Every structure is written in structure tokens, then in C-alpha cells.
Amino acid sequence: MDNPTLLSRIRARFPQAVRSSTEFRGALSIDLHADAYADLVTWLRDEPTLRYDFLENICGVDYLGRTPRFEVVAHLVSMQHLHRVCLKVGLPEHNPTIASLTPLFATANYQERETYDLLGIIFTGHPSLTRILMPDDWIGHPQRKDHPLGDEEVAFTFNQEQIYARKPFARE
Amino acid sequence: MGIEEKAGNLGVVTTSLEYVVNWGRTNAMWPLLFGLACCAIEMMGAQSANYDLSRFGMEINRASPRQADLMIVAGRVSRKMAPVVRRLYDQMSDPKWVVAMGDCAACGGVFNNYAIVQGVDEVVPVDVYVAGCPPRPEALIDGIMMLHEKVMREKISGVKERPITISQPLLQVEVAKKHG
Ligand code: SF4
User: Could you tell me the CA-to-CA distances from B25 to A33, A144, B41, B70 in Å, in that order?
Assistant: First the structure.
């Protein structure tokens, strides 16, 4: 299996799915439309001449200021052909929703929960989309680029009294 | 401690008793067995043969908070871990002390971000802060010695010493003034 063959086969099977594709140092990455994503991954996994049956990882990216703002990236490997493909799906800021891969690959479960927890991307069809890293009562999604970076003002000699005055010190 | 309620103001008896009780407390101060991050490695180093914390009666880390007197918060405390640390502290029996080991435990250190508690003193009351990233075992032992001195000054009524506030001049400032 090589990159042009795979790309042409995907184009032949799903003519509407591919938005664009790039190749960098022999690695193929395909930009997809969100609605074709789950069908395409199912087909890649089950088609006997392809067998992309190993989901290497699935994660999210926040491109603040770009449209679409979010992106979900999945790497699939075919053990039979020793070939890897990277699938990217752009998601709009107002509705970052995408189909879950957990019914297809059990390994997607925790990784999609992490993506949901840190970036707020909703995976429809996920069995239990809850927070995995942050505390359950956390508000917001901290890996978003517009999430504030620092947590507390740095105390110097000139402002330490004000900062310590409002710091919630523990009692015994 | 029952003894603190029973012993009234008996002058020399109270003072001597105070000394004996505090001596006992300092010389068998057992730390709680837990470490949170990289600082814990130095804490283990402090207890190993080279630095030998057992010289000061602290050779056993107790794995149960019921048997521990000293909580060495070695490492950064994440917001998810903070309730657990507080719960461990609440489970320790009185009298109990806390050492914040390392910059992360003392003030958040380099991790000024959403995930890390900015100083464990937001969660548990700290007696001694040990600076450094990570503090060397000598520094930790020095901090513990400082805590021992503090415990030796404790009154039998169980009232802890008030913390040094920042409005009081630091020791170094005084020394610098004296020596010009
Ligand atoms: S103070 Fe330094 S060594 Fe200690 S926990 Fe923080 S980063 Fe690690």
C-alpha cells in the first residue's frame, strides 16, 4: 500500500469525503468532512484489502483564530500493509461535535474522554463522555487556547501583602 | 492529649513536663508515607543510608495517617489531589505538623497554572516551608530540625505558636542591620 493508491481508493469510495490531502516526508494526512468520518473509518477498518485495524491515537487540536477552530486528529495503521494514515476533521467553534470511534476501537474510549475534558469536543455515540483528568466539578476546558494560563499573581515584595490578604489559607 | 487538660499551672512541674513531652514528640516524629512528585525522591534520599534521617528518630514512614505525626508534602499538589491531601491531614491524630517541601508545595513553584494548587497552605496549615527545586536532603533535614525547635517551644496547653507574619522583619534583615 502506498499513499497515492490509498488516496485514490478513498476518493473512489467516498467522493465527497476528502477536503484536501497533504504529504510530508512520506506521511499522508487527509482532511475530511465531519459527516463522512465514521463511515470512512469503518470502511478502512473492515475492507479486506485495506485493514487499517489499529487506531494509534486520537486527539484534538485548538487552532484559535482559524475557521474551523477545532480539529480532531486520528492515526490509523494497517498491520497487514505496514502503512499509516492520518485523518483530520475540522470542527466549528459553535458546535464541536463529531462521531465517536469507541464502537469501532475500544482504545478510543479514554482518548476521546481526554479530548472532551481538555478541549470540549463532543463525541456522539461515546458510551460515557465524562471528565477523565480534571475534577468532575471543573468548569471550562483548560487546554483551549483562550483559557487563562496563569492561576495566581506572582508575589513580589511590593504586592505580597495584597496577594496574601486574599489567598485562601487553610485552617486546622 | 489528656495530659494537657489535667496539668494545671503547677510551675516547675509543668515546665519540666512540657520539656519531657516535647522531647518525646520531637524524637519520635514519624512522617506519613507519601510523595507527590520529584521532591519525594529527595525525601527518600534523606531517609536512606547517606543522610540517615533515623538519627533523629524518624526512621519509619508510617503508611497509615493514624500513626503519623508529620506530613511532608513532597511535591506539587494538583487540584484533583488536594481533597485527598486534606483528608489525610484530617485523619492524622493530634498533635500533627506539616512540612511543605519544595517550591511547588510552598507556592506552586514553576507551575503557575490551572492544575496545581498554588501552595499547599491553601489546603493544610503548614509549619515549615523548605525552599528549593528540589531541596537537597540536607535542606529537608534542616527544615525538620527547625520544626523540632518549634515543637520544643510548644506549650503544654497545646496552643501552637503563631506563625511569623510578613510584617515582622526577617531574621536575615536583623542580622544584616547588626553587621552593617
Ligand atoms: S519543587 Fe521542583 S523537584 Fe519539587 S516537586 Fe516541584 S518541580 Fe519537582
Answer: 68, 49, 26, 10
Given an 8 Å threshold on Cβ–Cβ distance, is A164 in contact with B166? yes
Measured between CB atoms, which of A134, A135, A168 is closest to B122? Answer: A168
Mean predicted confidence (pLDDT) in B153-169: 61
- A65-93 burial by CB neighbour count: b if 16+ within 10 A, else e? eeeebbbbebbbbbeeeebbbbbbbbbee
**Type of residue at A24:** F
What homologous superfamily does CATH list for A3-166? NADH:ubiquinone oxidoreductase Nqo5 subunit (3.30.460.80)
Question: Does residue B27 have a pLDDT over 90?
Answer: no
Q: How many whole angstroms from A25 Cα to the centroid of ligand 1? A: 39
Q: What is the pLDDT of residues A35-56, one digit of tens each?
A: 989 999 999 999 999 899 999 9
Model confidence at B113, pLDDT cuts 50, 70, 90, reads: confident
Where in chain A are the domains? 3-166
- Which of A132, A134, A151 to substitute to test the interface with B, most B CBs within 10 Å? A151
More confident residue, B161 or B35: B35
Tell me which of B39, B44, B78, B81 to substitute to probe ligand 1's pocket, judged by most ligand atoms within 8 Å of the beta carbon. Answer: B39
DSSP SS3 for B148: helix
A151 touches chain B (CB under 8 A): yes
Q: What is the pTM of this model?
A: 0.77
A62 pLDDT above the threshold of 60: yes
Contacts with B118 from chain A: Cβ below 8 Å: 151-152, 167
How many beta-carbon pairs under 8 angstroms link A with B?
A: 43
- Cα(A55) to ligand 1 centroid in Å equals 35
- The larger pLDDT score, comparing residue A146 to residue B156, is at A146
Q: What is the ipTM of this complex?
A: 0.70
Give the C-alpha separation, B31 to B57, whole Å.
10
